[in-house]
Amino acid sequence: MDQPKVLVTGATGSIGTAIVKEYARHGYYVYVHYNTNRSKAEELLNGIESGEIIGFNMNNKDEIQNALEHLEVDVLINNAGIIRDSLFFFMEGEAWENVIHTNLNAPFYITKYISKNMIRNKKGSIVNIASVSGICGNAGQANYSASKGGIIALTKTLAVEFGRYNIRVNALAPGIIESEMIENIPNAKDIKNTIPLKRFGRVDEVAKCAYFMGHEATYVSGEVLNISGAMVR
């Protein structure tokens, strides 16, 4: 039996790293994507059973095409994302465009190229990492919320379009997860107290959900799995 393969974008971030390790632990050959941090990608690769690194700029359509046009995987994890937080009236156009390009436009192109081979093979699974901000919005995150809301809408649409090819498309909506993205979060203790579970999530908890939705939930498609400790419900 051929070894299953997964592509994880943004693999060098905290959540991406955890997802890589989770899939590798279950016997997957992992394509470890990096944007600029090649050394971190190589370090991550050295710690798993089998895989290879794959580099491309999330904002460069030609690089995405060159890297992925002929790549065949069983599972695609669209994980890469950035934040550029600011209240709407103070948000610069560049901050808006950078977040939309990385978090929404890039997954469009990545999925477009990867799904071609999935369609030909009549099988596949796509997991998009969204956010609770894309469900309920969040002050200071107009750009991020819009990008993740777009990812959720894209997920539901592709689930309808790709179902006939035996391709499942789902999304994860993490709440506040202990990662590099929240290192400078203000009033962390106060925010934690508003979460019914009274803690932030862990990256391994997101990774387990990414594996479940990508591999095990074989009759689940078009869904958004909320991972927020009941912060959003």
How many discrete structural domains?
1
What is the count of helical runs? 8
**How far apart are the first and last residues' alpha carbons, in Å?**
41 Å
CATH superfamily: NAD(P)-binding Rossmann-like Domain
Q: According to CATH, what is the class?
A: Alpha Beta
Count of DSSP strands: 7
Q: What's the oligomerization state?
A: single chain
Radius of gyration equals: 17 Å
Average of pLDDT: 95
Which regions contain 5 or more consecutive residues with pLDDT less than 50?
Answer: none
Report the sheet with the most strands, covering strand number, pairing sense and barrel closure.
Answer: 7 strands, parallel
Query: How much strand content do the residues show?
Result: 15-25%
Strand order of the largest sheet: 3-2-1-4-5-6-7
What name does the CATH topology carry?
Answer: Rossmann fold
Helix content: 40-55%
Helix-strand category = alpha/beta
